[in-house]
Amino acid sequence: MSMIDGLPPLRSVIAEHGLSARKSLGQNFLLDLNLTAKIARQAGDLSACDVLEIGPGPGGLTRGLLAEGARRVLAVEKDSRCLPALAQIADAYPGRLEVLNADALEIDPMAHLTPPVRVVANLPYNVGTELLVRWLTPAFWPPFWQSLTLMFQREVAERIVAPPGGKSYGRLAILAQWRAEARIVMDLPPEAFTPAPKVRSAVVHLTARPEPLHPADPKVLSRVVATAFNQRRKMLRASLRGLAPDIEEHLRRAGIAPTDRAEQVPIEGFCALARALAEA
Ligand code: SAM
Q1: Any idea what DSSP says for residue 235?
Q2: CATH of region 218-279
């Protein structure tokens, strides 16, 4: 793709700007532009969208997004060493790339974006889950984003898309699937990154549901789910005892056997329980 965008290969960019990877910033770079273009395509047609990218680093995915036709990209990067490389990309795509040298946890991206917005990122692992949880729990729904196309460690990706009944099913699965449709769209071996991490990675694509899957107050639901999975091996009548004195009654009203364990209960059951508790 260096032929397509006329920019130097990423290895040269890294050498030229001295971008040795820093573990503290979760830096595992993607240097294959065919691969970054493929990740960009998982987000669908971006020609009418602004894209929020967190952690562009030397810009491999940024170049993929722009070459694949994103209307505009806002790239938020904490490491100021990456700015000259990103400025070169901005020059190659006039008016289409804005770079913010900031911590993604500290900014309001909507001050810089025009809807519709999609988020695409090879996230720093140390803040990836925190950002996902924030994007899934805004004050109002639907959120600022139409879809999220995000790289995670494979184990985290599995926890996001997990169905009930297994070890991966928990708070993250319920939070994600209650408000979004989530699926794994790509699987990447450690060697796809420089330096190679210890574990496999996967890209998860989440599309915001117009309405949550079943009605429930988000705060009550979140408390019920957190309490249930805090002691996931216990029966719900024991693990949820602190939520209400007559918890067995509430569980039955929600169609849940009090002897069930948290991982056996589908999202619909947790929503019904949250409604029963809220009514009480
Ligand atoms: N997107 C690039 C790629 O695919 O090659 C780099 C991905 S690397 C896994 C994560 C990037 O996020 C790094 O460039 C790192 O400096 C940046 N980063 C880490 N913490 C950040 C934060 N809190 N806010 C913004 N960027 C951050």
Answers
A1: B
A2: 1.10.8.100
